[in-house]
Amino acid sequence: SCGGVATGAGRRSTPVTSRPPHVARAASRLVGAACDADRMTSVVGEDFRDAVLAGQEWEGREFEGCDFTDADLTGLRTRNCVFTDCVFVGADLNESRHRATAFRSCRFERTVLGKSIVEGCSLLGSTFLDCRLRSLTLRETDLTLVGMGGADLRGLDLRGLRFREANLGECDMRRCDLREADLTGARLLRTRFAEADLRDAR
């Protein structure tokens, strides 16, 4: 149905018409896109603050300069999507899944990413500040130029990931699996690597 924002199989969120105006406008854009899933949807400069978009499945969509501050994106599924210069301050992406999706120069601050899976994606130039990352799963993902200074990454499996010219200063990477990781040009000032596996890393 296209009368509200779908939040997963058999579930619906609050109807668009009962939401604050800026949320209703933003949600309506996504509802329209959901009615034509085969067509690329491009959204520029939209305001999704506080929007409830849990359980959505987005494929082949582009978002540029959009604001997802404090949005509920729990369980979001993306595939072949592109987010450019988007803001995810305080957003809840818990248990989300992202495949072949690009987050370019996006801002993640106090973002919840617990139990999220990012696979075959690009996070080029994005920044992470005060985010919960220790339950995050990253596979075959490009983190070139990412800003993660001071992040707590203890025990994460980061094998084979690309961190070229990334800011990893003061990160806690103790017990991380960094085998075959590409750390070329990365900033590593006061980064903690105790018990990390750095075999074949460069």
Descriptive account of the structure:
The protein is mainly beta and 202 residues long. Helix content is 7%, strand content 17%. It contains one helix and eleven strands. The strands form three sheets. The chain has a five-stranded parallel β-sheet, with no helix packed on it. It has a four-stranded parallel β-sheet with strand order 1-3-5-7, with no helix packed on it. The longest helix has 14 residues, at 21-34. The protein is elongated and about 50 Å long. It starts with 20 loop residues before the first helix and ends in a 63-residue tail after the last strand. The model is unreliable at 1-18 and 32-39 (pLDDT under 50).
Summarize the structure.
By secondary structure, this protein is mainly beta.
Count of DSSP-assigned helices: 1
Biggest sheet record: 5 strands, parallel
- Helix vs. strand class: mainly beta
Strands, count = 11
Please state the CA-atom Rg, rounded to the nearest Å.
17 Å
> Oligomeric state of the chains?
single chain
Shape, principal axes of CA atoms: elongated
- What percent of residues adopt helix (DSSP H or I)? under 10%
Mean pLDDT: 86
Order of helices and strands: HEEEEEEEEEEE
| N-to-C CA distance | 51 Å
For the largest beta sheet, what order do the strands appear in spatially?
2-4-6-9-11
Residue stretches low in confidence (pLDDT < 50, at least 5 long) are 1-18, 32-39
What percentage of amino acids are in beta strands?
A: 15-25%
